[in-house]
Structures are given as structure tokens and as C-alpha cells.
Amino acid sequence: MSLRCPYANSYRCPRYYQSRSLLGSAGITTEIDSPEDDELLKKWENSDLWPVTNEEATSTAGSSDRQPIIYSNFCPEVSGEIFGLFASSLCRYSDEIDRNNAHTIIERDGDSTRNNWRWEWANVSETHYRECEIYSQLSANLANQKIVMNPKVEEVKFTEASGKELITIKPGAFGVNFDLKELLSRASRWWLDRHGK
Fold first, then answer.
1. Read out DSSP for 121-159?
2. Could you report the per-residue pLDDT of 2-40, keeping only the tens digit for each?
3. Nearest to 173, CA basis, from 144, 134, 130
């Protein structure tokens, strides 16, 4: 298996998108440009991968005057890139008293290595992308019928050598839309020409 999630892209996974969007809104990373953010939000809200309840949704919580304290249902790929921890949920210390107490315990236990996540975080739910329920749905293709994998492509046209348009395929609710009447007409003409009628 790949070391990194093959769906780790805002156009391929709603959890990746939500995680990136929330971090941008909180000022931790660069915000997604507004028109693109609106497009992605609309795309995912119309898919059956979008969370139905708040408990399923990717979210942050904490003081409004500083960075969030709690990161819940996050894409582990995003948290890995930003925080260096592949985790679905991360919780910072609520205040300096809690942080100082935790630091005292870390030092007492002799586990004061620099890469110990407990210096920064009170609680972390380490998660590999294979454990993500969204990954399971995407990899099993349970919900992909409503998802356009590359929304920038609006249509694909097939033409003859002369440049005459044969058929146009456009993304639609069930994968693609095409002109069935034109397709049947061309198939009928081909069959008649082939059989000398």
C-alpha cells in the first residue's frame, strides 16, 4: 500500500477538504480562495460522503482569540503535514497550568525527547489513513457516483479527422451525460453503410 493516502486532495476527499478549509479559516494555514472554497463546499455537500451529523463532521473548538484547542475528525494526512502527527483528533492543553503539570510529568518519567508529542498536546488519536471511514468508502467506490474527480474538466469532445464533432461527454449525476440521439443516429448510419443498405 502507498505510504500516503491516494485521496489526499481537496477535490478527492471531503474530510481532506474540510480539514484544509478549517485550518485556513483559523489562520494556521493559507485560506482556500473564496470562489474555489465555495465550489468545493457545494461539490461535497451534494455528495453522500458529506457528514450528516455534527458528530461526523470535521471541526475545531476553542477560544476565538487564539488557535483552536481541539481538532476533531481531522484528515490524518492534513494533521501529519501541518502538525507532524498523523491523527484524526488532537487536543491542546487547555491552559498553562495543565501544560506545566504535563511537562513536569514528562520530565519525571524521563521521556523528555524533543519529538514527544505530549510537549504540545494533551491528547492525540493517532490514525493511519487506512483507518479513516471516508477512505474506506472512497476505496470501495460506495459513493463515487456523485463525485466528479476533476471538476475543472467541463466536457470532452470526440471529433473526426475532418474536425466534425462526433460526440460530447459531460460530467453528470451518474458519471457522464452524452447525446444518445446522435450516438444512435451515427450507429444506425454505420450499420447501414456496412451492410450496403
1. EEEEEE--GGG-HHHHHHHTTSSGGG--S-TT---EEEE
2. 889 999 999 999 999 999 999 999 889 999 999 999 999
3. 144
- pLDDT, one tens digit per residue, over 148-178 is 444 555 565 555 444 555 556 666 555 555 5
Instruction: Parse the chain into domains and list their residue ranges.
Output: 14-146, 156-194
Tell me whether strands 59-61 and 165-172 are parallel, antiparallel or unpaired: unpaired
C-alpha separations of 133 from 34, 51, 93, 96 in Å: 28, 11, 27, 35
pTM of the model: 0.68
Element holding 71 (H helix, E strand): strand 70-72
* Contact present, 167 and 175 (Cβ < 8 Å): no
- Interatomic CA distance for residues 146 and 143, integer angstroms: 7
- 143: phi then psi, degrees, rounded to nearest 5: -130, 5
DSSP-H helix ranges across 11-163: 14-25, 34-45, 76-83, 96-108, 133-139
Calpha distance 85→126 (Å, rounded):
7
